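Homework help board

Subject: predicted structure for assignment chain

Our instructor gave us this sequence and asked us to write out the predicted structure in token form, then describe one feature. I got the tokens but I'm not sure how to describe them. Can anyone check?
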Amino acid sequence: MGLPFLYRILIMLCHIYRSDRKLDTYLYLTDKDDFSEIPDELMKVFGTPEFSFSFVLSPDKKLAREDVTQVLANLETRGYHLQLQDDLLVEQMLAMKAAN
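My token output:
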């Protein structure tokens, strides 16, 4: 069956983009400027991504607002990780956008 993904990933270069529409909302990507894995609906709500910074992510890295294990899992399975303001769910963001 193999090792769980966390044990296979030692380090990962991560690129962070902030939303121009939502305060404290960020996308983490493994491939700089590659938004092909992001659902269209999410990109509409997120707005134009503004590059913030890049860093090396590893299982022992401490993140201020996110669980590094979850970030790595999302990057591995989805190709991106979404950090939301005040722990809003994606569904809530989409509902807010639809109401406007």
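Reply (TA_rk): Your tokens look well-formed. For the description, you could write something like this. The domain at 7-99 is CATH 3.10.510.20 (NE1680-like fold). That's the kind of observation they're looking for.
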